[in-house]
Amino acid sequence: MARPTTDPWSGLNSAVPDLPGLLSRVGCHVYSGEVLAGGEYQERFTGPGLEELIGVPVDPGADATAIFHAAVHPDDWTLYLAAGTQMTTDSTTSIEYRLVQPDGSVRWVLDRMWLRERLPGGSSIVDGVISDVTELRDRTDEARAALHAVQQINAQLERAKAEVVEATAWLEAAVTATPAALILLDRELRTRLWNPAAERMFGYSREDALGRIAPHVSPEQLPTVRGVTDRLLAGEPLIEFEELRSGGDGHPRQMSVVSAPVCGVGGEITGFLGVITDITSRKEMETRLRHLAHNDPLTGLANRTFLTARIDEALARRSASAQQVSVMLMDLDGFKAVNDSFGHGTGDELLTAVSQRLSTCLRSADVAARLGGDEFAVLLETSTRAEALAVGERILRTLGGPVTLGRAQVVVTASIGVVHAGKYQSTQELLRDADVAMYRAKTLGKNQMVVFKAAMQQRVAKRLRLETQLRRAVELGQFELQYQPFQDLRTGRMVGAEALVRWRHPRRGLLPPADFISAAEETGLIVPLGRWILEEACTQAARWRSRYGRAAPSVSVNLSPRQLQDPELLTCVSRTLSRAGLDGGALHVEITESLLMSDSDLAGRKLAELRALGVGVAIDDFGTGYSSLAYLRRYPVDVLKIDQSFVAPLLEGPRPAALVRSIIELARALEVTTVAEGVENAEQARILRDLGCHIAQGFFLCRPQPAGELDALFEA
Ligand code: C2E
Ligand code: MG
Ligand code: MG
Predict the structure, then answer these.
(1) What's residue 716's pLDDT?
(2) Which atom belonging to ligand 1 lies closest to the Cα atom of 513?
(3) What separation in Å is there between the alpha carbon of 715 and the centre of ligand 2?
(4) Which H or E run contains 587?
(5) Which pTM value belongs to this model?
(6) Could you report the per-residue pLDDT of 482-494, keeping only the tens digit for each?
(7) How confident is the model at residue 627 (pLDDT cuts 50, 70, 90)?
(8) Quick one: CA torsion of 209, 210, 216, 219, rounded to 10 degrees?
(9) What is the CATH number of domain 19-132?
(10) Going by CA atoms, what residue is nearest to atom 25 of ligand 1?
């Protein structure tokens, strides 16, 4: 607030500082004026700083107040006006506002005013000082900004600190919870971090471990660890290895170690982190799985996968070595009978015993494998073929000795097929031909070793041809039945006849069942063929019935195992009987022992059903299998057919007769009729009759004949 007046300073004493000069220089404007009762302001004194504040010269006589007002920043005008009112009520006030300079820049000023005196009439005198505070304000702004920045940084720091605390807590939790031992060593290998897993794994508490030189490493292993840290120092980013270390309990444990360098702020390596996991159980599991994958669980011998791989390797090595590679395929003879009559548990025991015996015949480099069931294989690498064959002979001899299984003693032999690798290219071919040779050993009478020859392959091809022809033969009905009668040894009467099938082969003539029954069995053709036989035999029995009435011979039909499994069997039998107008008593079925044993539940059920129809059941070839006499009690049968092999030596001495006698006595005790098979002469028939055998069948009486040829016998 200013108004030019006459110079008020002119009379000042020179001892007093040059106030006007000072004020003008510091940009400090002093003023004084009167505020009239109506609020209007009249400046009485205008100090020398005005021009400096507003940046323009103020002519003497100009309206300084108006000039000043014009400089007040429009945005601050209201504040400026309010200050006047404020001052008259409060006696003093101060405000900061802006003054706009001619160049458009802005200056901050602090305007402080005081009420000096209230005059009568309502007006009052005020004094004021306006000083330039731009710089101060700038500095304050700066300071404020700085303060703000500091506050923000602080807040950020606080947040970061909280984050660090949280992250540290998580890290701590992770380090504590992890099942892996986390161990931090400094460059001198002194322990800096030792988590609970490390405590558990190595038996040292954290307190004990910290500061010690790698407490988890034995002195002998320390050089290895130094080797690892040297490599890390040389720049390797990560080193993984597995090793055996002593665990906290003193037992050796398999450890997996991952080691990495730990770097300081400057990037230099300050230590080493080790993450150690105890993989002992995983390793054990792997070993077990590998064993399972490569071994037969029952016998512990190698399995097919492992054997095949080893044969592959041996074949690949062959050219580089002078060794002979031989593969033997081995099938136990009569295993099924043991398994069936003594049960699977005993069967398993036998397989284990066999595998142990087999192992004693081999050197450690040889591979013995169980391929499944009672099939074994051996891979040998020997200097000569003869050497391999000697091993085979040894196996035959060793296996052939009796085996004690619980209270029973059994003799199991083996049929062995041998292939020398020679020029063979593939393991598959090798195994295939070993199988052919083994099959040959079986058909040659078992308990022997056969070396594969190309001709055997032809035999296999022949078998395939036979199967094809057999299929056609079933379709074309190329079969015939011959009948072989049974004679009652006491009365001499023909009481029945067994139907025996023949194949009238278009080129090879009349073929016996031995030439085709097993092929028919294997292909399943026996089922349709068997139905035809049953029908044909029943038709024949009906003819005899109409011819000889009640005294007519019954008919016996051989049933193969496959037929007994046929779910239609019973329906088929009863339908066939009724179609022929026969009752069940006119028919007998003959089944072999092995069949009874192989699936005793099924066999028992089927036999009971057949017997319920009145059909007689005979056990054929009795004595050739592992006759478990128990089943004779369990499944009532009507007839025991004593095998030819017991009958043939009857004339040779008292022992065979004693054997037959005991069978007959047993049968009598069970109220079962005995039939002697293969009776070839009258002397045998006499002995059998004396031993109490009921019925005989054999060449001495009659060879199998077409039905028409038998009338003379039946009529006699
Ligand atoms: P199997 O049921 O034990 O029949 C007895 C076999 O011994 C018959 O041989 C018969 O000709 C023969 N044979 C009879 N008496 C004597 C004798 O005094 N001395 C000698 N050395 N042998 C005698 P075949 O006809 O060759 O039959 C062999 C086997 O084929 C039969 O043994 C039977 O198991 C089976 N078979 C025969 N026909 C059939 C059939 O229709 N179906 C089924 N599934 N198998 C049959
Ligand atoms: Mg028979
Ligand atoms: Mg027989």
Answers:
(1) 74
(2) 30
(3) 24
(4) strand 587-592
(5) 0.50
(6) 999 999 999 999 9
(7) low
(8) -100
(9) 3.30.450.20
(10) 500
